[in-house]
Amino acid sequence: MNGSSSSASGKTALQTGESPGLFAEGAGLTGRRRVQTLWFGFFRLAALINGLALCTILYFMLSRGWRAITWDFLTLPPREAMTAGGIFPCIIGTLGLALGSLLVALPIGVASAIYLNEYASSGRVMRVIRLGISNLAGVPSVVFGLFGLAFFCILLGMGVSLAAGALTLGVMTLPVIIGATEEALKAVPNTYREASLGLGATQWQTIWRVVLPSALPGILTGAILGLSRAAGETAPIMFTAAVFFTPKIPASIMDEVMALPYHIYVLATAGTNIEQTRPLQYGTALVLIALVLGMNLVAIIYRSRLRRRMR
Amino acid sequence: MAVSRNQAEKLIRLLFLGIAMVSIGILGLIMFFLFQEGLPIFKTVSVQDFVLGKYWYPTDDPADFGILPLIVASLYVTLFSAMISIPLGVMTAIYLSEIASRRVAEVVKPIVELLAALPSVVIGFFGMVLVGPFLQKVFGIPIGLNLFNAGLMLAFMSIPTICSIAEDALYSVPTSLREASLALGATELETIMKVVVPAGISGISTAIILGMSRAIGETMVVLMVAGGAAMLPESVFDPVRPMPASIAAEMAEAPFRGEHYHALFAIGITLFLFTLVFNLVADYISNRYQQKGEASL
Amino acid sequence: MLKKAGFFLAALALFCVGSGVGASERLGINGSTTVLPVAQKLAEAYMKMRPDVTVSLAGGGSGNGIKAIIDGTTDIGNSSRFIKDSEVKLAVEKGTYPVPFRIALDCIVPVVNPSNPVQDLSIEQIRDMYTGKIRNWKEVGGPDLRVIVISRDSSSGTFESWGELVMNKERVVPSALTVPSNGGLVQAISTTPGAIGYIALGYVNKDVKIVSVGGVMGSEENTLNGRYPISRPLFMFTRGWPTGVTLDFINFAFSKKGQALVKEAGSIPVY
User: Are residue C145 and residue C248 in the same domain, yes or no?
Assistant: First the structure.
């Protein structure tokens, strides 16, 4: 295949003159193919860089943090100005915050998604709600922190507490839940709905007994993603829930908590002995990464299985 | 029987509508509180002095509340990260959507998603303890916590956002467009660059804008890595103090409803307005320039 | 599967509540990172003495501590500076009367990277570095290296004390890096050859080198005899005269055991 035979098929705008002159015989198909190979190489490189970045971060965290992970580390509270002991209160705090945020976000999120997907007619109202959701998704995490402080901590008088933190995080993960639930609802074939309605069920009965159960796995995926997002956030809980050191488990949801992401932050910037606690910082980071990536991996695998089943 | 069923249905529908409005309600509440707690600062300092003032000394006596260095820092950091994240993100999206085989894509896509899932504090920590000293050594600069470091770390946080939205956009370009181009004798590359990408340009622009919006709003990374100097940067290796970093660092010490407190909320307003504008523009572009069907290309 | 998840959640919740049962008293401490090592040691020892009390500790700077006292969100506010007039006014407006307790002494020492040969600086030289007038170490007899000024966030009592005792209220140059804590400053200095910073005596370790001020080295002795120019008391503020657990804790801080812990933490006991 050389240049002259392709010119016989009639020159179109796609062929004339556009091939970058990397190779002198560039007007020919071979030249264009070479350019393509070059560029495709760049594209592959771009994708590879992402993989490299992830691997680099994971490698460093693992190699410097694995030594800190012992049974004691995971089950004991910190001692001796955080240079010894463990991060148990942080793990509990993070789990509490994440689960609490799900308790808030899941009902509201699923209900919102149901409305958008099942009830709403396209038009003004839906456009406005969607705009609201997408803007909510774009609000910076520190602004959520400010909001949580002003609204939950001060106005509603919760002070710095697990409850305030969970509510703030819940508001933040709302768009995630809504997005995932909508995707799950969309994947339910319309034939299900039509069959149910054809049998005389009302719309609500259809949703409750037919659509939701089918969409449940997808909703679950979204819930896991929301959990992992809530577990990893720091700025929303900085002013609303987390403190530097409170070694006992919170006795009520109105107590302050320690949390994994906040712990990493304070140990690395505000601790009393930053160099000495460095291994613990890596260890805490590793635990957090394991938690978050673990949840995400579960969600991703589960979701791809679902998609395969749906096909 | 049918009548009361209908009534119940209507009620349920209203209930769901109400719940769906919660998102807007929260957005409205956020705006309300930001403005309520932030506007009082403008009794002390004019809007112009606040936004354009060059000195941020909030606890001095008398205090100076000029956030220009903070705004400029945020913009520079976002710009710098965009220079890295836009090419990488879009190219990865093209790779995933057009070039990679199904099997490879199924491995690469989760990797990008996992990159997105990394908590921001971990990336900040990584930037602070590993990338900072590394930059110090490689570039011979006095301190590794600066604009460059922050931009680099932020880029890796925005790439997954850009990549996934752009990939969706490219994926939804009708195959018939591609087939037509290939049938006319174009190579795959030419098809991608001259047909698919332009067709998906609205989605790609949305992706870029949302990625940048994420970068400007990110807190923990800039808090730990940008250096904290409230100055107008002269070089890419200067320490800076973007807006979210100031808020996070100073909020805990600002006495409730004192001047400093109001000033920090006012920075929050500024930040919120930036991201709001970004999001509205992205929404506008995605609606206006949507490629609907094949005929309008 | 949902059932399993529900069961797990219930068990977790029960566990969480159960381990906190036998409602303990809570003591909240918040504030200065200078006082933090002291507060942490005191808190740990105190909780051993009184297992029915849970102490929760937050750092972030003297400004945080005083604000928390003013806003009533904490029981004890640590501060490495005295309360400002404006803060007193705000507190009284809100109906809180802050009571200071001087639980330790401290001095702020200028520190440089261990590779820096400079041994001594006058207060004026330090001030000029911080206002940006002196930009290169060779101007003070050091190597030809740019001076990297490192300072603290505005929430820091150490920052405020530095401002009063060294800067004469002049402003630190905007290009100074800011770190949120004494610990952060140690970290920054140890990795930056041309840096100068200031930390509380209790944070000095082998990663940084102390510079004497006008010939006087910062130390416990020189603070107590008054020769060292940059020293200050460390305070714990309470809301009104302390009662109950708060009073007990403050008394503990003043006890022999408490002051021994102060010394262990690196600060200077009051007796």
Answer: no
Residue B84 tokens read as 């890295």
Domain B47-296 - what CATH class?
mainly alpha
Range of the domain at C208: 107-224
Per-residue burial over B201-236, b = 16 or more CB atoms within 10 Å of its CB, e = otherwise: ebbbbbbbbbbbbbbbbbbbbbbbbbbbbbbbbeee
CA C232, C236, C238, C244 dihedral sign is negative
Between CA A77 and CA C137 the distance in angstroms is: 45
Quick one: C147 and C98 in the same domain? no
Domain extents in chain B: 5-43, 47-296
State whether B92 and A43 contact (CB < 8 Å).
Answer: yes
Give the CATH number for residue C197.
3.40.190.10
Q: What are the contacts of C249-258 at 24+ separation with CB within 8 A?
A: C249/C27, C249/C42, C249/C46, C249/C55, C249/C76, C250/C76, C250/C101, C250/C103, C252/C42, C252/C45, C252/C46, C252/C49, C253/C38, C253/C42, C253/C101, C253/C103, C254/C101, C254/C103, C257/C45, C258/C42, C258/C45, C258/C103
What SS3 state is found at C103? Answer: strand
Quote the pLDDT of residue C259.
Answer: 92
Query: Do C68 and C138 belong to one domain?
Result: no
CA distance A243 to chain C (A): 5
pLDDT at B266: 92
Q: Residues of B with CB below 8 A from A23's CB?
A: none
d(CA C119, CA A170): 54
Q: Are residues C192 and C251 both part of a single domain?
A: no
Q: Does the CA dihedral A116-A120-A125-A127 come out positive or negative?
A: positive
Tell me the three state secondary structure of residue A257: strand
My answer on whether C170 and C207 are in the same domain is yes
pTM of the model: 0.85
Task: Considering only the beta carbons, identify the residue of B59, B227, B255 that sits closest to C90.
Answer: B255
Give dist(CA C182, CA C60) in Å, integer: 10
Instruction: Say whether both C121 and C41 belong to one domain.
Output: no
Domain count along chain C: 2
Question: Do B88 and A46 count as a contact with CB atoms less than 8 A apart?
Answer: yes
Looking at the structure, tell me whether residues C52 and C148 fall in a common domain.
Answer: no
C31 forms beta bridges with C78
Higher pLDDT, C41 or A9: C41
B149 vs chain C: nearest CA distance in angstroms?
A: 14
d(CA A196, CA C206): 75
A134's CB contacts (< 8 A; 6+ apart) are A175, B279, B283
Domain identity same for C111 and C95: no
According to DSSP, residue A245 is labeled B
pLDDT tens digit sequence for A263-297: 898 888 877 777 778 888 898 999 999 999 988 88
